[in-house]
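Hello forum,

I keep getting stuck at the same step: I have a sequence, I want structure tokens, and every attempt I make locally crashes halfway through. Rather than fight my setup again tonight, could one of you with a working pipeline run this one for me? It's a single chain of 142 residues.
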Amino acid sequence: MDKNIEKQFYEKALKENFDKNIHANEYSPLVLAYIGDAIYEVYVRTMILSKGNTSVNNMHKEAKKYVKASEQARIYHSIENILTEGEMNVFKRGRNAKSFTVPKNAILSDYKHATGLEALVGYLYIDGQLDRLMELLDKGIN
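Reply #2:
Ran it on my machine without issues. Output:
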């Protein structure tokens, strides 16, 4: 899918659904991670779909490689040196948030880094920093 079309989708969703009187920093880190998880999932599925038409089963297997905690932790580590101070603060808020669950196949540190990355994705999305969001995900995944 064309990156401009994907960006237009996100912009339209933002414009129609978010209260502009609430700044992204005002959401709890777990709320940021909640929306960030969904945005990240759409990004991954769009990336996979852009590689060509294949069976849904094959797409699902490919997507699983990107959405597991260990891969999200790896993505974070590949972009951490280019994060701004503000972005790093959002990541740390997400990483340090008290979550009551840990997936059975995840290492706790990977899960915390994945939550931090998802919080950052959610923050950038809600804040309307879509170019920066795409830049970081593109760099982290590729």
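The chain is about 75% helix and 0% strand. If your local run keeps crashing, start a new thread with the error log.
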